[in-house]
């Protein structure tokens, strides 16, 4: 394929201007530029930044270097004044007075100013009825305190209840109450959270002792009421803080809006899109539970809240504006107004219709809607009710017989049989709970189809009439009756039992139906009655024989019922087992006058077993209570109580979990005066242990043993410098914990003092003191190990600080820290810290080393060796127009590298970093910074100024070069173009290159106004070099070809596509110097489409059939050129001479003859594509060989399993056989089984 000059330039990356941002190395930090005069925004302006505190007066920030150094000169400024303003629309001064008297506003302001050393000004606006307060202070802290105090004194005290999810209470309280204390301290608001044991779950999922927030709203997670009491604005501030904590812990929630009125629900459903829009979030889902009349909203907490509010508002709105009308319609037409039909009525008339349940006799409908829509609604309902034909099929009476017939029809799924026969008819059976004098089956549909099903129903009811009967048998015997011993006399025995036997009556009917489809069934009523009597008699006899059923009432006190039931009823389920014929009712469920009973009913043997097990459980519970009632009391010294209880009660909980005992500690022992000198005796605490005797005594033994160990406890304070503490403690305290576990001691390290100098530890320790507390032997062992560890740390944790010139820091660090990491690895120095100094001349940076003396000495020597290599640096700048930067840098930064090398600079890319720095992309400026050795910097500056002067002398001239010759001038791989540019030191841009449009307009553009843009080549450089390059380019321009001769050849249009061979034929002609113009362009492929498959194949993984067998492929042959347009296309041939035209014409005629012979098209479809690689061959060698041998054109599809073969009928058959043979041979090496035709 021919490539244009622009394509060649893009392929070989020969752009006129090189990349201006090469990846040499990381450049040094950019110098500070003069900032643009952008409009500034006051950060203290509350509208712009409402979350920020009021700012101090504007103050110019000191420049900070990349290494964190401070400003060179610290400005001396006056102490800043912090200012804040706020408005109050109403004030309550009743809280600010004393002795029940209210204070004045002036007195409140004086009180706050005196307490917090602030200045407060107040001004009232009578029009807006607001008072504006201006507060000034010397510190932000004093300002905030004064503002909060003023708000607290002037605002009314309110209480607000926030319902927080129970899972967020821990986050609200925080570790040891830290979060809650912080909110209270910041806002001075009282926050009350009820204790967990006082909370009771309410019906809507809220855990509270108070009323739930909404009776028709339910959250998925229980909530706890949090009460906030304090000044109004501060309460709101605390409320927002709590809401943020809740949102961070529970970003998603689920809320249910329940008990939506039935007549309002259809209208609410039409507002779904409005509710989602009100939520202001797409991350929310709304689902409907139709039966419960509730809507569930799930998603982001705030979005759900907004959606629920919109739903509730819509419900209230519809309640207020909806009215109703009554409409009476026959009961059978009610079926046409329920479900989807009701939705259609709503869509057409904006009215909802409420239909009474099927069990009710009432025929009155209720139509709900707005007054203006009710007329349309009633007409729509009447139209819908009359839209289909309804046939009522009455069942014979009495009602008991009708219900038996309905029961039988339901059991045999006769409705499905009817609907399978007439799918367009809907069949509705009456409800068995309906209280009606007669029962009917409703059929809805086309009258002709309905009549067919009425006939079928009549036949069935006729056969069943007199052939069904209900027999009352205890439900406990139903399963027994259905056993294999039941004799069936041409009957179907249908037993109906409930899944909850405890809730059904003791006797339940068994329906006997004389099988109407039996071959021996008799239509005579007396014969049916005879068989029913016989079966009923036999069933009753069998039930009587098997009915060893009894009930037994067991007296069990109510307090033992929980033991019988077990957790979640597990104990009772285990007693009953999987046998569902056993009923156990506990307490009030038994229906007796006393609740101290358990009723057991079932088979006698099962009842006896269950009663025995219940009594055993009760006896065990009584014995367990007796065993766990043992108590023992003793006293211990009160000073040991805290250690016995443990952190957070861990010690007491350990005894409870391991021994199953309850431990109570009381400090009620009074202080006693002992002796004449009035000395106090040692205080005691009483411990009471409750549980099994042996467990309680063991717990007592353990506690007393612990007290003995505590009595032997001693403490020792070690002097250890603070610098070794972190190493001795270890990550997450692992070393200290190991020592504590090993020696049973407590090791305490000092912590940093908090605000106000308060120690964070219970013991008052100095910064270099470590406390060990425990038994004498344990303290001695831990002390010995700690001191040994300190000696090791002193040896391996030495610290050394020294300084190096700041100019050498970049070389010491290396690119990406490579040099410093290499030093650290080579010297085994454990830690190297670098604190960089300012960028001033002769500034120094501090390096801190940590490790053994030997390692830090080696690391210091290596660092100083690198620093000594960096000589005194100077900084210079050169102003060069930004349009020349890319050319100077060169492609990939090569121009800059060559420049540094010519000026005697380092060749190592790491050392070149920061030597020459051009402005980065996005930075504005023309200043190029040079930083390095004075000698190298001077040469670079001189060379850059020279290059800049040459660029300023550059011109852009255009030259007219035919586009057909651009490729030859660029050369293969751009070599010719590169040589030409290097020879004359110019840049040459051919049309189509990326930077062609960036070069600019040539100076001689007026002279080239008539030149085709595709022929205009731009040359950039000094004027003399450009003129010489243009002259050289013109010398390589070849003269245009002489005007050629033409000839016309007529080609049938239907053969054009086949002759063109997708354009390769025309490229061949151009290779012979002949161009072709067509009067009728070549259309898309003229090949006929593949006919539909005539065989259905199924592939299985266990199919061993050979892909080459006849059933594994499909061969279809059609006539070629069937649906193509007739006519001829005139091809105009243009060539240099007659010989070329003669050769082209002969090639066209040969191609026409070949296309004429291609009379058939064959479609060979294989089972899969596994053999295609072998058919195609390496680089198409196999398919090319097949084309040559058969004479047919073969195309292997890349998208499906079909190979298209075009040619004479014999050629395509030969090609097909050769392909199948080649495909079959592909199975050999894979070990597959081959099948051959006989």
UniProtKB/TrEMBL annotation:
Taxon lineage: Eukaryota, Fungi, Dikarya, Basidiomycota, Agaricomycotina
Species of origin: Coprinellus micaceus (Glistening ink-cap mushroom)
GO MF term (any one): RNA binding
Start and end residues of each stretch annotated as Disordered: 1-46, 194-227, 1076-1110
Pfam family for this entry, one: KH_1
InterPro entries: KH_dom, KH_dom_type_1, KH_dom_type_1_sf
Keyword Repeat among record annotations: yes
Protein name as catalogued: K Homology domain-containing protein
Gene3D superfamilies reported for this sequence: K Homology domain, type 1
Annotated Polar residues bias: 199-211, 1076-1086
Residue ranges occupied by any K Homology domain in the UniProt entry: 156-247, 321-386, 548-619, 628-708, 712-791, 796-868, 872-949, 953-1038, 1158-1224
Keywords tagged on the record: Repeat, RNA-binding
Keyword flag Repeat: yes
